[in-house]
Amino acid sequence: MLTIGLIDYLNTMPFHYDLAERLQDAAVRFERGVPSQMNRGVVRGEIDLAPISAIEAARHADDLVILPGLSIASLGAVRTVLLFSWAADIRDLDGQPIALTDHSATSIALLEVLCRERYHIQPRFEMTRQHLPSMLAEHQGALIIGDDALVEGTAHRALSHATGWNLPYIYDLGDEWLKMTGLPFTFAVWAARRDRATELEAAGVFEALYASTEAGLTETARDQLAATYAARLGLPAGVCRRYLRDLRYHLTEEDRAGLKLYLELALEDFDWSRLAFWQGEAALA
């Protein structure tokens, strides 16, 4: 039995638009969770294929292969990787506590890179449960991702602070990366265990995933997904529709260039050549 990991965020819905139906006769099961759970599951060998944080794919390149042409990326604002802060200038967060989401790896490393390379500051980072009000009640900044970030960024509500109820400032890390580099940022890639990749391909999983993604990225499908998630998240359908329209899903050469630069900045002694992109069994040679 093969295990496929799925993340129930709006931004992943095009991938598994009709994936279950396409694989209904295959010996597969689905495991759902947040990105950090997908990361752990794939690294431990408990999940054979999943969308995982891009930095984790690089950290464990010897054990994984990346599916080419599939990613979650943005050119500029992404809307679901947001730093909320009481500081009107990020540079004022130097030496200050920032709460980090427990749902992500790539976004945390991105914030660390931006603080070091763009703002030249050293905040005090603390991993916490992802819950914006409690994060900002005890910290000067809070990094949150996913649907929570989309909801909180759209609502932009006043939150309790030492000086009363105030509106936090919002910094979109996709936009901050673009300002620094002029390149897209790749947040997630689809990665498979090297020791299960051939079996996944033989079972038709890769083919089904690509076909499901193509179907999920049609205008009709994105409208359907936006309407469904708008009701679930309590957001206008237009917000969800625009969000899906602006994301990049195909890991183009430009996306790879942004990813390479990010990994070089985030990982000491990073070697891009270690990343294997699946091209059949030859990728494992």
Task: Report on this structure.
This protein has helices at residues 19-22, 35-44, 54-59, 106-119, 132-138, 146-155, 173-181, 197-202, 205-216, 219-233, 237-246, 253-266; strands at residues 2-6, 28-32, 49-53, 64-74, 81-85, 97-100, 124-127, 141-145, 159-161, 164-166, 169-172, 185-193. It is of the alpha/beta class and 285 residues long. Strand 9 (159-161) and strand 10 form a beta hairpin. The protein contains 12 helices and 12 strands. The mean pLDDT is 95. The strands form 4 sheets. It has a 5-stranded mixed beta sheet, sandwiched between helices. The protein has a 3-stranded antiparallel beta sheet with strand order 3-12-4.
Put the structure in a nutshell.
With 285 residues, the chain is of the alpha/beta class.
Considering the chains and any ligands shown, give keywords for the structure.
alpha/beta; 285 residues; globular; 41% helix; D-Maltodextrin-Binding Protein, domain 2; 2 domains
